[in-house]
């Protein structure tokens, strides 16, 4: 039988392709993205990452073995200290302080995405935690590795670091570990539960798309 992660990939493929074609990402890889849109994205992503890091803490709590617990702790650490550090350094280049980053008011889409994830984690099994956070890691790995190969993408003084982070071997290895864990956790589950995991994965993939779109539109609350 084929791996469950392949089923997930197929189920979300259409929405992932739509993300790849979104102007936020096509312009980022071509180096034409307006820096104002990028800094908006960084601020929203910073507050997103705070809740996303909590998903790894929850993964650590729900883990059934020490090895998995250690791995989630590693992911928690690297999100807080490596990924968020990249954002802090970017913000500094724009004259935005660490405090200002942290005080970013989450946009409607950021609220929807982070609360959707935390709700899945609060209600669900470890498999649900992994299903909902997997599109984040996996889709960024796909974007990062594709952009590394895109001619000229790494020449851009602003977007180069971002591409290097998500195209890195370390990030790829963490994504691979998560894919492998998803497959192990799905083994032997009844179809009803697999369908539920697929629903979580697809919903998170749609929220990933909406996150790019929100950043491009620089979404604000109506008042
Ligand atoms: C919205 C979002 N999804 C995934 C990642 C990758 O960790 C990120 N930084 N932001």
TrEMBL record:
Q: List the SUPFAM superfamilies hit by this protein, alphabetically.
A: Heme oxygenase-like
Where on the tree of life does the source sit, at the highest rank?
Answer: Bacteria
A Pfam family cross-referenced in the UniProt record is TENA_THI-4
Could you tell me one molecular function GO term of this UniProt entry?
thiaminase activity
Which pathway or pathways does this protein act in? Cofactor biosynthesis; thiamine diphosphate biosynthesis
Q: Can you quote a single GO CC term?
A: cytosol
Any idea of its EC number? 3.5.99.2
The Thiaminase-2/PQQC domain covers 11-217
What this protein is reported to do is described as: Catalyzes an amino-pyrimidine hydrolysis reaction at the C5' of the pyrimidine moiety of thiamine compounds, a reaction that is part of a thiamine salvage pathway. Thus, catalyzes the conversion of 4-amino-5-aminomethyl-2-methylpyrimidine to 4-amino-5-hydroxymethyl-2-methylpyrimidine (HMP).
Tell me the subunit arrangement. Answer: Homotetramer.
Similarity-based family: Belongs to the TenA family.
Q: What is this protein called?
A: Aminopyrimidine aminohydrolase
Please name the source species. Answer: Cohnella faecalis
* Lineage, highest ranks first: Bacteria, Bacillati, Bacillota, Bacilli, Bacillales
What gene, per UniProt, encodes this protein? tenA
